Amino acid sequence: MEKEQVVFLANGIEQSNLTLFDIKKLDTTVKNFLPGFQKGKEAIAGFEITKRDNHVSYLFAFIHTGDNYYLVIYSPNKKALAELKNIDMVDGNPYIIWKYNPAKRDGKNQDRKDYFTKNFGPAIRQILIPKSSSDIETFIGELFALCQNRLEADHLGEETN
User: Fold this and answer.
1) Which 3-state string (H, E, C) describes the chain?
2) pLDDT tens profile 91-134
3) Please, are residues 68 and 1 in contact by the beta-carbon 8 Å criterion?
4) Residues β-bridged to residue 46
5) What is the number of alpha carbons within 13 Å of residue 155 lying toward its C-beta?
6) How far apart are CA 152 and CA 41, in angstroms?
7) What whole-number distance in Å separates Cα of residue 100 and Cα of residue 150?
8) Which among 77, 94, 101, 112 has the fewest CB atoms less than 10 Å away?
């Protein structure tokens, strides 16, 4: 992602008045690190975002190393669920590209991929980067769905949060 895109998204989340989600800004250290997250990667911002209707929360960390800027979404126990950094332009609009690619060492990864595509569609997702703050809630909703789908496929259909 470009630095401007990351800054826009972080500012948009922080300043949004959302109806479906509660947002809590995470504190950074003096040197702009998020305590307990990826070491050596400076934070632009971090948020705990909770969906009001089911109380599911994810941690959104906007981080960078050098010129590499990206969003990492974590579970509440700080397990990385999605690292979003690849951007493609589609019809002049920037989309984050994410691919479901399970890498567990139990021999069931193809089953997970099959479950994902059968139940949620293509393993490669394109998520439109919002152009205005009014699109932030839709963007967050899509990221929540992506994480929920990933977790469900990772557990081959078991109930997950």
Assistant:
1) CCHHHHHHHHHHHHHCCCCCEEEEECCCCCCCCCCCCCCCCEEEEEEEEEECCCCCEEEEEEEEECCEEEEEEECCCCCEEEEECEEEEECCEEEEEEECCCCCCCCCHHHHHHHHHHHHCCCEEEEECCCCHHHHHHHHHHHHHHHHHHHHHHCCCCCCC
2) 999 999 999 999 989 899 999 999 999 999 999 999 999 999 89
3) no
4) 61
5) 11
6) 29
7) 7
8) 77
The pair of three-digit structure tokens given for residue 17, joined into one six-digit string? 């008045």
Place of tokens 């069931």: 108
Contacts of 58 (CB under 8 A, 6+ apart): 48, 49, 73, 74, 75, 76, 81, 143, 144, 147
- Predicted structure pTM score: 0.91
Count of C-beta atoms within a 10 Å radius of residue 43: 21
Q: In what order do the strands lie in the sheet with 21-25?
A: 21-25, 42-51, 57-65, 68-74, 80-84
